[in-house]
């Protein structure tokens, strides 16, 4: 249950903002935003192209899942790990030899 937004002007008049917004929700917004007060996207002549609900649903929908190729070797196997360790050892040995040759 929402609280009614009723404001009193300086002259004593009461303005119900919720009723005013509901009354004018289909009117196009003023400015360069092609929307009405509800948030519907408007096209030429003020016709509704996409409803607010559709815009919200597409914005908050989960992203599409990426397809996984079978040739992707992202999961390490024991062969890959052993090969990787041997390669890194060779690099270290080569770097150590270069350092000793410099001295």
Structure description:
The protein is α+β, with helices and mostly antiparallel strands and 103 residues long. The chain has a domain at 6-60. It has three helices and four strands. It has helices at residues 17-23, 52-60, 78-102; strands spanning 6-8, 14-16, 41-42, 48-50. The chain has a two-stranded antiparallel sheet with strand order 1-2. A two-stranded antiparallel sheet has the order 3-4. A hairpin with a 5-residue loop joins strand 1 (6-8) and strand 2 (14-16). The longest helix is centred in the last third of the chain and has 25 residues, at 78-102. The mean pLDDT is 79.
Brief description of this entry?
The chain is an alpha+beta fold and 103 residues long. The protein contains 3 helices and 4 strands, in the order ββαββαα.
Topology, element by element:
Blueprint: E1 6-8, E2 14-16, H1 17-23, E3 41-42, E4 48-50, H2 52-60, H3 78-102
Antiparallel strand pairs: 1-2, 3-4
Give a quick set of tags describing it:
103 residues; alpha+beta; two-stranded antiparallel sheet; two-stranded antiparallel ribbon; 3 helices; 11% strand; elongated
């Amino acid at each position: 249950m929402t609280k009614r937004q009723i404001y009193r002007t300086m002259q004593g008049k009461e303005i119900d903002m919720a009723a005013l917004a509901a009354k004018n929700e289909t009117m196009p917004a003023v400015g360069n935003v092609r929307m009405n007060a509800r948030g519907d996207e408007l096209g030429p002549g003020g016709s509704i192209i996409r409803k607010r609900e559709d815009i919200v649903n597409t914005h908050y929908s989960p992203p599409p899942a990426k397809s996984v190729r079978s040739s992707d070797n992202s999961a390490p196997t024991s062969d890959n790990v052993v090969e990787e360790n041997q390669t890194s050892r060779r690099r270290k040995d080569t770097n150590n030899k270069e350092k000793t040759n410099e001295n």
